[in-house]
Amino acid sequence: MGELRVVQPTLMAHAGALRNRLRLLTTINLEGLTIPDGELAPGDWGEGFMDRRHPHTYVHEAVLTYYQPFGSGAFSVSAGKGFAPFGTDDPMSRPALRYPVNHHLAQILERSIAILGVRSGPVLLEAGLFNGDEPDRPGRWPRIGRFADSWSGRVTAYPAAGLEVQASHAQVHSPEHRAGFGIDQSKWSLSGRWSGSVRRFPVYAMMEWARTSEANGFFVFHSLLAEGAWSPGQHRLQYRFERTERPEEERTIGPFRSIRPHLENSILGTTRWSIHTAGYAFRGLPLDWIDAVPFIEVSYGRIARVGGGLFDPEAFYGKTSFWTFGIGARLGLGQPMHRMGRYGVAQDTAGRLEGEHHRHRE
Predict the structure, then answer these.
(1) Which has more pLDDT, 276 or 262?
(2) Residue 302: beta bridge partners?
(3) Mean pLDDT of 134-162
(4) pTM greater than 0.90
(5) Beta bridge partners of 76
(6) Domains in the chain, please, with CATH?
(7) pLDDT (tens digit, 9 = 90+) per residue, 51-90?
(8) For residue 18, what are the CA distances in angstroms to 23, 62, 65, 67, 313?
């Protein structure tokens, strides 16, 4: 299959007052207009899509923060719609265009959130309350009556220049049943990220482990992912490997959609997706008014059934391996993309690669 799509169209805006102690951070995502039926991506899943990445909600982030420094640290209070303090960065701000399979294992996004953050020296603590329900269409807002039925916490340390280590845990109530009668999730995430330079050229590397259990451990899904990028001059080489387990949910007549609302008997089995993704990008087009970065990406993956269940990947797909190819360009205007999902004391923690190689896309 092949398709031509405009993906990840975003508009970002920041505002500040009271000597920047009061901050507003917003991200508008227009994928509901450009990919209403999702983006072809074998292995991806979530919010009712299977093997297609779902469009995000129009208001991806709208978070108001009060930030107060003290001595060698600071504290902040943030509220609005955005990411719960859990896991790693939104894949949109990372080198590969292809979303990883573990997106819904490694991030909790587009919720009504209230977050307290404290930073002291090289250690940062965040604790948050949010609603458990996932959006089921781009125009959907969180169900306010469910606010604070879920919580998460994250600790982040910066032991050396450019090095970040985080550990986080979340308890999410009925994420895939909007009314709140579905099964709960218990989530863990560990990661390390480094941004620096090798021979004066920017380098980025990240490794993460994630675990999600549902129904008091009856279903357990693991993910291990490692990715990196090296940017000598106007060129960028990048690579990602992930091995992620995902639920195989009962599908509708259309093979790319699963039945909603989701219940425990909707899971027909578990598959493990092992995917290598390599890419090359060139940042050197002589355009003063727009940031244009042509790229090419290639992915190779294998699918395996884990444990029992009714789902047989070879019978469903016809084979247990696949290739995907992507060619396109990232286009952007204005300031570099901010680090999504980091608010208050965590807002200004972006590494060098993000600032130099990722700009707003449209």
Answers:
(1) 276
(2) 274, 321
(3) 95
(4) yes
(5) 67, 117
(6) 10-357 (2.40.160)
(7) 999 999 999 999 999 999 998 899 999 999 999 999 999 9
(8) 9, 19, 12, 10, 56
